[in-house]
Amino acid sequence: MNWQENPDLAGRRFGGAVVWANDEFFAERENLIKPDEPVFQPYTFGHKGQVYDGWETRRRRADGVDQAIVRLGMPGVIKGLVIDTAFFTGNYPPFASVEACGAEGYPSPDELTGWTTVLPKSPLEGDTRNLFDVTDTHRYTHVRLTIYPDGGVARLRVHGSPVADPNFLNFDHLDLAALANGAEIADCSNRFYSSPNNLIAPGPAAVMGEGWETSRRRDDGNDWVSLRLAAKGIIRLIELDTSHFKGNAPGWASVSCADASGEWKRLLTRERLQPDTRHLFRVTDEHEATQARLDVYPDGGMARLRLWGSLTEEGRNLLVTRWQDRLP
């Protein structure tokens, strides 16, 4: 999987926050993790100058650097970084680096320690989505962006795989399809309007754009998405939420699951769906599963997919080991 298809662990939509910056004179630090793409209106001046949709510091007249700390909304393994300098042309930083740390509890910014460099000092281009691979395999909760020496960054995207802390999970009642619990999208037939990661994102969708929506089909097929569950478990309740999809919800849907052998079993036969509705379906047959697949007929949009169930003993051990092996 291309790491840009992984969720943005720092995104505000997932609970991320910019908890500190040493300077934000021209533009607020919170802009760094806004879910929307940056925008720009020329000749839009505030009392401090041109308004930018990003984080911008004042011009340095002495040695030093500027920094911002982001608490990840979903702690996990970082696969890649996007340092987006959109619309910053004569005022972007020429270099940047990123460090990360893993913290327990809820420390304040000045209590964070154990910083590890995941991106060494690297050159940036102005008005560009600067992409950087990350090879570190540890689980982190915070990142610190350093820009050299000053300037503006529109967005910071921290793409990766969430790793849940098992100390806060109920193994007997768990959303096996949740991004935050370690589930991930394996494949998808169509992502024309939005990412299938939205299907399994935390919390309810606030608007239609926070769900998964396909283009209109002009053939006899149907759209689908497959996923790897957080760990091996037994699905007992299926939630199909079409909230905000009114004239473009699927007409029907079905859900299947498979174990490591790859043998697929139907959990939910083709069921009729209503627009803008949260549907709940009980599963009567018990099947141990590591994968699941949602089919929608023929196309359309879905806000959320939840697969509630319990972990097997093997699944519990895997989830705990995954977390322990990724600790910094």
Automatic annotation (TrEMBL):
It holds the Pfam family Allantoicase. It catalyses: allantoate + H2O = (S)-ureidoglycolate + urea. Its EC number is 3.5.3.4. It comes from the Bacteria. Residues 15-162, 182-310 form the Allantoicase domain. Keywords: Hydrolase, Purine metabolism. The keyword Transcription does not apply. Pathway: Nitrogen metabolism; (S)-allantoin degradation; (S)-ureidoglycolate from allantoate (aminidohydrolase route): step 1/1. HAMAP family: Allantoicase. Belongs to the allantoicase family. NCBIfam families: allantoicase. This is Probable allantoicase.
